[in-house]
Amino acid sequence: MITTPEHDERMAKMTFASVYPHYLTKVEKKGRSKEELHQVIEWLTGFDDKKLQDLINEKATFETFFQQARLHPNANLITGVICGYRIEDIETPLTRQVRYLDKLVDELAKGRKMEKIIRGQ
Question: What is the mean pLDDT of residues 76-105?
Answer without folding.
Answer: 93
